[in-house]
Amino acid sequence: MEDTGFIYNGFRGAKVSLDGEAQIIPNGLLMLTNQSKRQLGHAFYPYPLHFKNLPDGNVFTFSTTFVFGILPKYQNFYGHGIAFVITPSRALPGARPTQYLGIFNESNNGNQSNHVVAVELDTIKNSEFSDINDDHVGIDINGLTSVSFAQVSYAIDQSDNRKNLSLVSGKPIQVWIEYNGVEGQMNVTLAPIDVSKLHIPLLSYSRNLSPFMEDSMYVGFSSSTGSFSTSNYVLGWSFKMNRPAKELTISQLPKLPRLGPKKAIQIRERVDICSHIKVPAGAGEGEENSAAGFFDFWKTKIKNV
């Protein structure tokens, strides 16, 4: 029985395979994307893990926890988010940024041959994927139309009273993802790092993942940006097969950069952005697909930030 595991309280010296915009910066933060637009970044544990009990082909129990932070340049303009990904290949061939989160593209999104399971931390509503809002968590199987999803929140007591949470607050948030291979159930829980985890998940999805996964799989993160500059970070990460993931030592995690004062977006800057953005054909609600739609988007979303 596999019991592979690792823990990174910060990423200095960590065994991580990087591509795209992803890099480990000097203080130990894993930066998946920087302030560049329409870019993607990947960071994977460099070795494949065995996820299946070969006699019966069932996926093992596994658990992971990580702390992330999303820092937009402007308070109300950002995109597109981060995903924890389990995939047969670190390369993710043909992956696109923007609403595809660096995992899929127009032609392979939803294909059963992908053998990809992901948990998305999505900051942009895309109607083509039936997203519920701009701030949600979803469990994805082979595509970005989530099989289970919810607005971001965390339990504040054992009665499951909840408090909403913003993915783009610029503050670190901890995520726990736990799959029970015997019961075929995945739980996803989030909370600010200064809040203890309650055993009341945000998402609880019952499905045997065995038909959707191969035995040899990679685990890691994918992130993408769109029309607006956003930096996406992971501060620490722990993973374990057939056991609970070791808890991160919060005091040892690197600090996120400080969010500077937000300037107002002036009319000239808005016009400059409008005149330079090239919108891809077939883009969804998160990537404005017409001039009228784009200006409607600005009219409803622009605020002083």
UniProtKB/TrEMBL annotation:
PROSITE patterns: LECTIN_LEGUME_BETA. Keywords: ATP-binding, Glycoprotein, Kinase, Lectin, Membrane, Nucleotide-binding, Receptor, Serine/threonine-protein kinase, Signal, Transferase, Transmembrane, Transmembrane helix. One of its GO terms (molecular function) is carbohydrate binding. It is found in: Membrane. Residues 5-254 form the Legume lectin domain. The keyword Signal applies. It is a single-pass type I membrane protein. CDD domains: lectin_legume_LecRK_Arcelin_ConA (cd06899). SUPFAM superfamilies: Concanavalin A-like lectins/glucanases. Its EC number is 2.7.11.1. The keyword Transferase applies. One of its GO terms (cellular component) is membrane. Belongs to the leguminous lectin family. In the C-terminal section; belongs to the protein kinase superfamily. Ser/Thr protein kinase family. This is non-specific serine/threonine protein kinase. It comes from Nelumbo nucifera. The lineage of its organism: Eukaryota, Viridiplantae, Streptophyta, Embryophyta, Tracheophyta.
